Amino acid sequence: MIRRSFSRPTTKIGQYCYKSTSAHTINTPSQSDPPDHAFQHSQFAKAKVGNFVQAEPQQENAFTSDAFLQSYLRRTVPKDLMDSIEPDLTLFGERCATDIPALGQECEVTPPYLRQTTAWGRRVDQIVTCQAWKTQKEISAKEGLIAIPYERAEVEFSRLYQMSKLYMYSPVSGLYSCPLAMTDGAAKTIESQNLNLPTAFSHLTSRDPAKFWTSGQWMTEKKGGSDVARGTETVAVHQGGNHYKLYGYKWFSSATDSDMTLTLARVVDKRVEVEDSTEGVSMFFVKTRKPDGSLNNIEVVKMKNKLGTRQLPTAELLLDGVDAEMISQPGRGIASISGMLTITRLHNTTSSVGAMRKIISLARDYATRRTAFGDTIENHPLHIQTLSRMEVETRGCCVLLLDLARQLGLHDCGLINDQDSLLLRLMTPVAKFYTAKSAVATVSEGLECFGGQGYIEDTGLPAMLRDTQVLPIWEGTSSVMSLDVVRAIHKTKGEAITAFHHRVKNILQQSSTAPALQKTSFIISQSLSDITTTLQTSPDTLQLMARDFCLSLAHTYIAALLLEHAMVTNCPMDLLVLDRWCQRELCPVARYGMERYSREMGDKEKELVYQLYDKEATFPAVYVR
């Protein structure tokens, strides 16, 4: 047996380690060994882990590194205006690579929490946010992230300017992009409906951090968020004039720390029971705090524990006599929020495309720093093919976003024509549906570009995927968006889809003289024809085919926009993106024929889903937390 002495170890540090449950090989000290006193505290010696340290991905200037954004703006915005805004976009792009990402990371690692009572039991319901979250509010005001489209210094191009900044800001904002979306929605609602809220509007659109307000959007109740009208149980009791007191329970209130909110409630009197209908649902303006700083009869019941967006304070609220002002016509609450939804869905699209661009930026930089199999991975063709496919998808989504921003800018200034107005109504839910799905897939693919490091929380990369996952859900799921597209077609009596056809057809006619574009023009033309045929032959099955139809609209419209862009720039990269985009199936709704969407097929699909399901044989869920 070998006798071990822990008072005077003789094992060479770094070559062996001590384990209390097993014997160790003992080396006899040689003349070259350090003196014995060097090993007196070997249990505290540094481990030898080698000299290699993997270089981490670096941040790029979000504007100067984005070739497509620059190209689109230079093509669309008049030169004098572009010259005036480009320095600001460049400086802000640098901020989105330097100080702002650090603040976003702090928001992620220091999430908000609820301080419900003081140590002595007084109810305060204080939502505590970190300093970085407060700093993001200051940055948002100073950078004009809400103010720009309402100042209109860039006239109808102001929205493009704003959305370009938000597109760069969103993925590094620590989710402060969410309250900005609802703030923009509130400002647009006040302006477009000419509501008598001048003080609120001036706060929402201020560049002064001391005056700047953010707005919440409290619509969702326990019955759910999509069927808002029938799901609204909150009641409004008349107090005289436009003043009411609200009583109810808001199940999901994003950006709960906002200064104000727009919300829905059902107007009733003391004799009327709340009904499961749309009757009486109206829109109200609420200041979240009283003049003394206390909450406006609002109790914060709990904070939501979410998959992602943990930086964002989201809570369940009890409204117990909240002072509110009706700002819609009685019973016209649902109609009154439609303009707000256009804004928030466009912000959702901006966040989707921004996340896609950010993950590609990090991945392409990392590819120049990571070596595998004897070379940096930027020189491995299969890896570059993956990044290239992500790039094509991102540029396609980006051109859709920017086109909608262009249309919204025209709408803001009262310059929009009927075709663009109809396209804005039709393509906003299409864009929200398509880009959100693409963002989840692209960011997930992007994590793979970092190997195992893409799965490590300390890198900040997994948070990008978690936060992106909310995008197909917030402001309406994919199915809800698809059905809204169907609703837009029906409510406009087909005029929306006619506007779509005319816009794409006009682009195709303009490209007819360019030989290099003939192949892709033919593919787009065929897809447009398939969409038209589908609608003409099977209008009764439009609801069942809604998701595939929505996908077809997105693919085809993006293809046409890329064609329009390449036709003007004649840039080899733009031509390549167009060609790659048109290699996909542009009109998947026409793939299997209309029997795929028949009522009989729908019945079979339900039978497939519920095969061997027995509702009476289920067991209650068990929650550990």
SSE map:
Layout: H1 67-76, H2 79-95, H3 99-109, E1 113-117, E2 123-128, H4 131-142, H5 148-151, H6 158-169, H7 177-192, H8 198-204, E3 215-218, H9 228-231, E4 235-240, E5 243-254, E6 260-268, E7 281-287, E8 298-303, E9 314-326, H10 333-336, H11 338-367, E10 371-372, E11 375-376, H12 381-412, H13 418-448, H14 461-468, H15 478-491, H16 495-511, H17 518-537, H18 546-569, H19 572-581, H20 599-609
Parallel strand pairs: 3-6, 4-6
Antiparallel strand pairs: 1-2, 4-5, 5-9, 6-7, 7-9, 8-9, 10-11
Helix pairs in contact: 2-6, 3-4, 6-11, 6-12, 7-8, 7-11, 11-12, 11-13, 12-13, 12-18, 12-19, 13-14, 13-15, 13-16, 13-18, 15-18, 16-17, 16-18, 17-18, 18-19
